């Protein structure tokens, strides 16, 4: 192969291209545009169109900074420009500003707010004072925070499904739990939550409660367990959502 600039002979095309880039500071074309058939250089050698023909770049992109169209106002007949990515231009800015009733002259005043911490994550949030009247436990910034707090604090006799003391699950539980997580790909089978977004591994829920079996070990079977995030686990125990291997696949 011969360098087109200096004429130096090289053994391979790749070597010639590297030579031209390093020695002459100018990479050689490696793509042919499907639009105008001109040759151009693409560092990743993936593009099908050059900059001038790229259907999603430059002036072809509706969000391009200079991509404006001109039309006439239907009220005053004056010409004005608008971005095609916006709604089609109908009225000029002057007519819009002068039109009565389109924009309120004064916005309603924001009601009183108080700042309180989220009971779960302690991040600060603003709420109306009335919201605190029936909130003996406090306020939460998101449903996820509320669910996490319930999972940690509303347990034992305070839980709506409390039926007695703790149950000894037995040694077989941890083996079934691990197998269930592996089977379900470590993600909640109801909402799809994964460990990265949950910040922890999902729970493993018994579809038929352990207390309904004569021996806890009888509940630890693969067809009686399903992987759920904490929020979905709580909803499943409340009976708000119906979960089973068949329903969630």
Structure description:
By secondary structure, the protein is an alpha+beta fold. The chain has 4 domains: 13-55, no CATH class; 69-98, no CATH class; 114-155, no CATH class; 168-248, no CATH class. Helices cover 23% and strands 11% of the residues. It has 7 helices and 8 strands, in the order αββββαββαααββαα. Strands 1-2 form a two-stranded antiparallel sheet. The chain is flat. The two termini are 58 Å apart. 12% of the residues are buried.
- What is the C-alpha radius of gyration, as a whole number of Å? 32 Å
The total count of helices amounts to 7
Structural class: alpha+beta
Please state roughly what percent of the residues sit in beta strands, choosing from under 5%, 5-15%, 15-25%, 25-35%, 35-45% or over 45%.
Answer: 5-15%
- N-to-C series of helices and strands: HEEEEHEEHHHEEHH
Number of strands: 8
Shape: flat
Give the strand line-up of the largest sheet. Answer: 1-2
Count of domain modules:
4
Main sheet record: 2 strands, antiparallel
Which residue ranges are poorly predicted, with pLDDT under 50 across at least 5 consecutive positions? none
What's the end-to-end separation, in Å? Answer: 58 Å
Helix proportion: 10-25%
User: What is the average per-residue confidence, as pLDDT, rounded to a whole number?
Assistant: 79
State the gist of this model:
The protein is an alpha+beta fold and 249 residues long.
Give the SSE map.
Blueprint: H1 13-24, E1 31-32, E2 39-40, E3 69-72, E4 79-82, H2 93-98, E5 114-117, E6 124-127, H3 143-153, H4 172-183, H5 195-198, E7 203-206, E8 225-228, H6 230-238, H7 245-248
């Amino acid at each position: 192969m011969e360098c087109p600039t200096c004429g130096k002979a090289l053994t391979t095309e790749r070597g010639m291209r590297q030579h031209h880039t390093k020695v002459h500071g100018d990479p050689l074309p490696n793509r042919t545009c499907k639009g105008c058939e001109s040759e151009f250089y693409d560092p990743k050698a993936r593009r099908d169109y050059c900059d001038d023909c790229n259907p999603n770049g430059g002036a072809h992109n509706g969000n391009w900074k200079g991509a404006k169209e001109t039309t006439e106002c239907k009220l005053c007949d004056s010409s004005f420009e608008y971005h095609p990515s916006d709604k089609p231009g109908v009225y000029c800015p002057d007519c819009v500003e002068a039109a009565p009733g389109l924009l309120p002259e004064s916005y309603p005043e924001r009601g009183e707010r108080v700042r309180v911490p989220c009971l779960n994550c302690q991040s600060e949030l603003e709420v109306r004072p009335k919201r605190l009247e029936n909130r003996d436990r406090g306020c939460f910034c998101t449903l996820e925070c509320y669910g996490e707090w319930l999972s940690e604090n509303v347990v034992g006799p305070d839980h709506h499904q409390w039926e007695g003391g703790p149950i000894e699950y037995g040694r077989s539980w941890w083996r079934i739990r691990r197998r269930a997580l592996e089977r379900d790909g470590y993600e909640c089978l109801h909402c799809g939550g994964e460990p990265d977004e949950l910040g922890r591994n999902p729970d493993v829920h018994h579809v038929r409660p352990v207390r309904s079996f004569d021996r806890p070990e009888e509940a630890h079977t693969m067809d009686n367990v399903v992987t759920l995030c904490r929020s979905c686990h709580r909803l499943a125990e409340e009976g708000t959502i119906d979960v089973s291997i068949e329903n969630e696949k």
